[in-house]
Amino acid sequence: MSRQLLQSQLSAPLPEAPELVLVTDLDGTLLGGATAERRSFYRWLAEQRDRVLHVFSTGRDLSSIARVLAEDEPIGLAAPHLVIGDVGCTVACGQSLLPVPLAVDPIEALWQGKEQALLPLLEGQPGLAPQPLHSERRLAYYVDPEAFDHSLIPQLEAHGVDCLLSDNRYLDLLPTGVNKGSTLLALLQWLDVDPACVVTAGDTLNDLAMFETGLKGVMVANAESALQEHLPRLPSVYLASAVGCAGIAEGLRHFGFDHLWD
């Protein structure tokens, strides 16, 4: 019933029995690598649309995701089946990019009142500049780690948020416990799929929560060093030797999904 409820809130059908659920970060991962490699991988995704359920999992907001899809359509990037955006704070239909109430409403409830409490603490802080995003369930900043006062983080987190620093330049304030990993696990419950057929892929610290789920993961070769430092405690994660799209494909073959290329 949960899968039927999820499908009822989407504008396009999901694959009936996907052989692979592929969950990819965007910048540096799905959007990473040479144009020829990306074109080839996007073509493969389009050809396998009934066998591979594709999920974007990104820090971008929905309007930014729409721009990516428009910009990369000429090289074959198609809309995914589902989107996890805003570092886990938004779930949307990949085709329409309309939020899915089933997933978003509980996160919205956790966020109530947080922004009003946090903004006075953040205003005028050195090393912070607001990102131009349109999210109602997180706050996002560009951060200069040298200028930023890191002692501010416990004060912020006391208001029921997690502070996530990634790629040495982003700071996200998310409702406590909400991240790419938690939102993905909830989504997989509604999809009712075998966790063994799920593969995640990413390159920055905001992807760590996906890798910590214990699901199969691909860390592409261009992953930030702060993320690679966690590899020893992530036995289900494969470090690819190739960057971006080529790294995802390498990881899928490593995990035994070669048949999807036959």
Question: Concise description?
Answer:
With 262 residues, this protein is α/β, with parallel strands linked by helices. The chain has helices at 2-8, 26-30, 35-47, 62-72, 101-111, 114-122, 152-157, 180-191, 208-211, 225-228, 244-254; strands spanning 20-24, 52-57, 82-85, 90-93, 128-130, 139-143, 161-166, 170-175, 198-202, 216-219, 237-239.
Structure, explained:
The structure is a single chain. By secondary structure, the chain is an alpha/beta fold. The protein is built from 11 helices and 11 strands. 42% of the residues are buried.
What key phrases describe this protein's structure?
single chain; 262 residues; alpha/beta; seven-stranded mixed sheet; four-stranded antiparallel sheet; 11 helices; 11 strands; 35% helix
Classify the secondary structure makeup into a structural class: alpha/beta
Low-pLDDT stretches: none
Number of strands: 11
Question: How large, in whole angstroms, is the Cα Rg?
Answer: 18 Å
Give the helix/strand layout.
Layout: H1 2-8, E1 20-24, H2 26-30, H3 35-47, E2 52-57, H4 62-72, E3 82-85, E4 90-93, H5 101-111, H6 114-122, E5 128-130, E6 139-143, H7 152-157, E7 161-166, E8 170-175, H8 180-191, E9 198-202, H9 208-211, E10 216-219, H10 225-228, E11 237-239, H11 244-254
Parallel strand pairs: 1-2, 1-9, 2-3, 9-10, 10-11
Antiparallel strand pairs: 3-4, 5-6, 6-8, 7-8
